[in-house]
Amino acid sequence: MKAPQIAAIAVGIALLAAFPAMVGNPYYVHLVETILIYAIVLFGLDIVVGYTGQVSLGHAGLFGIGAYTAGVLVMKLGAPLWVTLPAAIAVASVFGALLALPALRVTGPYLAMVTLAFGTIIQILINEMSFLTEGPMGITLTKPSVFGHTMDETEYYWLVGVLLLASLLVVHRILRSHLGRAFEALRGSPVASDCMGVSVYRYKVYAFVISAGLAGLAGALYAYSEQYISPNTYNFELTVMFLLAVIMGGRKSRIGSLLGAAIIVLLPKLLDDLAMFRTASVALAVIVAIAAGVAVQRGKIKPKSAAIPVIGTIALAAVSFKLQSMTDWRLSIFGLITLFVVYYLQDGIVGFVRGALGLRSHASHEAAEVAALAPGQQALTQAGGATGEQLLAASGVLMQFGGLKALNNVDLNVRRGSIHGLIGPNGSGKSTMMNVLTGIYTPTAGSVAFAGHSLAGLSPAQIAQRGVARTFQNVQLFGEMSALHNVMVGLHHSFRSNLIDVALHLPRYLREHRAARLRALALLRFVGLGELAGEEARNLPYGQQRLLEIARALALDPQLLLLDEPAAGLTAPDIVALRAIIQKIREHGVTVILIEHHMDVVMSLCDTVSVLDFGQKIAEGGPAEVQANEKVIEAYLGGQAS
Ligand SMILES: Nc1ncnc2c1ncn2[C@@H]1O[C@H](COP(=O)(O)OP(=O)(O)OP(=O)(O)O)[C@@H](O)[C@H]1O
Question: For the purposes of burial, counting CB atoms within 10 Å of the CB of 30, is it exposed (0-12), middle (13-18) or buried (19 or more)?
């Protein structure tokens, strides 16, 4: 972290700590306390929404579970704070795991509906279970006691501040670690995550559990803060507010969460007070005008797109001076502001400001790090096993989609250390074979054995962990992540660190992180992408995206690498470089199955070539032999051959 950043954080913390003394008014202290508590929920919700890309409308329910766990423990057992907070985290985490179950089956609007139902059920249960929760009457609590001393409003505010900072640090560290990269990867491409050994199922559950734990902690803090809890609080409106706050503040950002929390707490208050609303809307118009001016000048956005937010905020400021009373307009203005932010600032306020000021979310010194990398830094490890022995044996593979036999009784035997070509006309079943070998499709009949062990019943992630890596015909990168982080997802298997190691930055995690980073940089250099290590994958040209997929697959330390049309979309010089890369991969003992339409690439690289046509293997042998095979010529050229 750079010195100005550290100074800014120190000033922020000092201001936060001194706030009660500065304002002196308990109402404002309570307001900021609520913002801090909501921010803890939003840190968690952002993991689910911003990082893994799932929708959750169940977080108000989880927040309520935290509040009621603390409330019930205090009411029934007189439990102290050090019991209620961990209990709230634990109970909410268990419910978070339950909430994750539908996310494993459905996505998008369906998931929104299921999580919404979850939240509603929780609210009803709290209402109905009067023997435990006092039902609609609610539970009254006092501020917590520590060592026999009951905290006052300011002391409790400090406690919330400390827990907010602790949550922020832990969440930030998790999201910067291999766990965070796994969350982000499953948003970018679930199928590629699985094929990198990062189980989509497992990491979705982790994300929901961590997120729920934070909601539980925040709920418990909220119970003490309000000193009264009732089921009405944890309703649909609150859950929508939480979601809006993440979107408005800016997803994948802790500052965005804090900003979002401030908006949802302060905006309704602001709309209650006309004078304050006028001042705030003028301030907003000035800020937006300056930000838009800077962005246009730097060429980040076009004047036309800058005009809409500028005009919108100026119009809002003008309207504020026309209004005589806020009462009738409160909800309409709230709705309009929300609509405006969500529609025009799709990356949220933080995303907009970052874009306008040309700031990057990731550090951009990766390219320099590659340049400084020791020449001997190893990219590939030597794959074990005796060259020439059978590595992969697929026999009698049948893959049926309805009436279509995409693969019909196909045998494929691949020797260790070889480059095995798999060719055939379009639609002949090559990619289907890849998907069968990597566990994405379960074959209708037949068997696949890898290194002497059957792959039957294994998930794609388990097959990847056994040493089978792949690239995809339609590139499947994690678009929002840098090239370096894409490769580091492939190195997920090299981490043994758990949540504690990550949260506390224990030596084991730091060692693994450093090693993985160096290895990823070396892999990028290996495929010639060293200069672009810090670039977001989606911004790379198509050909380089293909090379990045190869680097990511190699990060798995595979014994077998499946390349699905790696030369597609590459220029002639790039194809020459690709050939050299594939040769080097083989020299490291990695076996390669190569699907390719560029026949010169196949013929110059492959030791053996198998040819598929209409799902059946029609020929197999050395490149020259296959090229001269009449059935192959017929398949490729149709009737013209004869
Ligand atoms: N999930 C699926 N559901 C239904 N049909 C499928 C599915 N996947 C593949 N197919 C069909 O199986 C056949 C083989 O497709 P596949 O993609 O394996 O061919 P390919 O040899 O890789 O072709 P190309 O070179 O064009 O990529 C095609 O007819 C395709 O439409």
Answer: middle
Instruction: Give 154-175 pLDDT, tens digit per residue.
Output: 999 999 999 999 999 999 999 9
Helix-helix angle 200-226:59-77, to 10 degrees: 50
Q: For residue 558, give both structure tokens.
A: 């595979």
Structural tokens at position 187: 């948003």
Q: Is the CB of 110 under 6 A from ligand 1?
A: no
User: What domains, with CATH codes, occur in the chain?
Assistant: 29-234 (no CATH), 418-439+460-641 (3.40.50.300)
* Cα dist from 190 to 115, 196, 440, whole Å: 20, 10, 11
- The span from the CA of 246 to the CA of 253, in Å, is 9
DSSP string of 363-414, one letter each residue: -S-HHHHHHTS-TT--S-PPP-S-TTSEEEEEEEEEEEETTEEEEEEEEEEE
Using the mean position of ligand 1's atoms as its centre, give its distance from the Cα of residue 432 in Å.
6
First to last CA, the chain: 70
- 429 C-beta closer than 6 A to ligand 1: yes
- Distance of alpha carbon 634 from alpha carbon 632, whole angstroms: 5
What is the bridge-based pairing of β-strands 419-423 and 608-613?
parallel
ipTM over 0.85: yes
pLDDT digits (tens, 9 = 90+) for 9-68: 899 999 999 998 888 888 999 999 999 999 999 999 999 999 999 888 999 999 999 999
Q: What is the pTM of this model?
A: 0.88
3-state secondary structure of 282: helix
Nearest one of 234, 230, 264, 235 to 247, comparing CA atoms: 264
- Residue whose Cα lies nearest atom 11 of ligand 1: it is 406
Does ligand 1 come within 6 angstroms of the Cβ of 431? yes
φ/ψ (deg, to 5) at 146: -130, 125
